[in-house]
Hints:
By secondary structure, this protein is mainly beta. It has one helix at about 5-15; strands spanning about 35-45, 55, 70-80, 90-100, 105-115, 125-130, 135-145, 155-165, 170-180.
Amino acid sequence: MIPLTLIFVSFAAAKATGFSRTVSPSSLGLRKEKLSHLHFYFHDIVSGRNPTAVRVAEAAMTNTSATGFGAVSMMDDPLTEGPDAGSKIVGRAQGIYGSADQEEVALLMVLNFAFFEGKYKGSNLSLLGRNSGYNKIREMPIVGGSGLFRFARGYAKANTHTFDLVTGDAVVEYNVYVFHY
Ligand SMILES: *[C@@H]1O[C@H](CO)[C@@H](O)[C@H](O)[C@H]1NC(C)=O
Ligand SMILES: *[C@@H]1O[C@H](CO)[C@@H](O)[C@H](O)[C@H]1NC(C)=O
């Protein structure tokens, strides 16, 4: 039989540590939701002595797979205002991409955009999506954010600006549309 004191203690604890409640958006300082458009260029450098994306894992079959299935890379790619590598850095794309399709070239992208400039300096957006090598424009969901991007949701459109077939280095134009407060 469960001692009465134990029942009393767990009941009291449940009351005192209730872990959820409803709050008003204004209590978090949230006002009107707005839609923002961010435009920048993503530099994925895989060659040379200072790559910004490196292969961290692969499967035994990756080398014989037509799509490089199983290859996983970690990136810390600069984001610039213009397509030029020397153009002003506005943030970085930090995360992972992996070859996730055995039929066609398509990547699973999981990354955070960390912004260093302007209004969104110190705020971040999280992207999770499928990046198909066959589409000129790839659309990937923005699943959340932090700082000024709390409660963010939206999408990113990626359009390859330049791709070096020899080195594998790429510059990709990003247009990001997000709802946030
Ligand atoms: C795949 O090929 C690369 C380059 O030839 C080699 O360095 C690597 O060890 C190979 N990986 C596997 C798992 O066989
Ligand atoms: C956003 O990311 C940067 C870089 O990692 C970090 O310093 C900053 O604290 C993050 N901002 C928020 C609001 O979490």
